[in-house]
Specification:
By secondary structure, the chain is α+β, with helices and mostly antiparallel strands. The strands form four sheets. It has a four-stranded antiparallel beta sheet. Strands 9-8-10 form a three-stranded antiparallel beta sheet, covered by helices on one side. The chain starts with 6 loop residues before the first strand and ends in a 9-residue tail after the last helix. The protein has helices spanning about 15-20, 25-30, 30-35, 50-55, 65-70, 95-105, 110-115, 150-160, 210-220, 230-235, and strands spanning about 5-15, 40-45, 85-95, 125-130, 135-145, 145-150, 175-180, 185, 190, 200-205, 210.
Length: about 240
């Protein structure tokens, strides 16, 4: 049930932070002692390309899109170790959650963070040159340790992308949910309402799902324009699924 007393925000502890063993430090900085915020959800995620591309959808087509996809998938820091490619996804709840978390995270660019916000988490990050196929530098990638939602609207989109409702206990869900009355499957980029070999079940009758997800699935099933893409709905259901 929606609760106006809470604001929620998504935090991702990225692969570079995990490689540097900064998880404990980051969690301590975001702790209730410092922020007054509480955990609403937590999970360890092996990031699929679908999830990565949906998370960074606003950057699709930009020169740094592929480098940041490889970065969040863990390929940049663990090129030969798929078992180590992971992200810690967290939802924090409480008054003014988005602003509080962003302030502790610091500016997106670690160089700027060191100049303007010493003591914030991203001061420990770095900036990596991005090169094209010829080896020429065409931009930069910010290895900035954490992601933090920028606005309440962005937080809602991102939380629904990384978490199912059942990943968050009922008393801490602030976005509307609905009970599914139908089967929905996904296979080869298509939405199905009946099982086919190789299809993955997104939801079944009786399952609790985000209301916005169910509305999107119903629209897509009818061949109508939905508020979000099919991949944006599906990505969370493939989290940690068998490869």
């Amino acid at each position: 049930m929606e609760n106006a007393a809470f604001e929620q925000t998504l935090v991702l502890i990225k692969p570079d932070a995990l490689k540097l063993s900064l998880t404990g430090y980051i969690l301590s900085q975001f702790s209730e002692f410092h922020t007054g915020l509480r955990f609403a959800g937590a999970k360890i995620v092996h990031v699929t390309r679908m999830l990565a591309e949906e998370h960074y959808a606003e950057h699709r087509g930009k020169h740094f899109f592929e480098p940041i996809i490889e970065y969040i998938m863990g390929m940049s820091h663990y090129p030969a170790g798929p078992q180590r490619r992971r992200v810690v996804a967290l939802v924090y709840s409480g008054p003014d959650a988005v602003r509080k978390i962003r302030e502790i995270a610091g500016p997106t660019n670690p160089h700027v963070a060191r100049e303007t916000s010493p003591g914030t988490i991203r001061t420990l990050g770095t900036v990596v040159p991005v090169k094209n196929a010829s080896g020429a530098v065409v931009g930069e990638r910010m290895d900035n340790l954490v992601h933090a939602s920028a606005t309440p609207a962005e937080a809602e989109r991102e939380i629904k992308l990384w978490f199912r409702p059942t990943d968050i206990m009922p008393y801490m869900r602030i976005y509307p949910t609905e009970i599914s009355d139908a089967h929905y499957y996904y296979h080869d980029g298509k939405l199905l309402t009946a099982y086919e070999p190789g299809a993955k079940c997104l939801c079944a009758p009786g399952d609790t799902v985000w209301k916005s997800d169910l509305e999107a699935l119903r629209q897509i099933e009818r061949g109508l324009m939905a508020a979000c893409s099919l991949d944006a709905v599906v990505a969370k259901y493939l989290i940690n699924a068998s490869p």
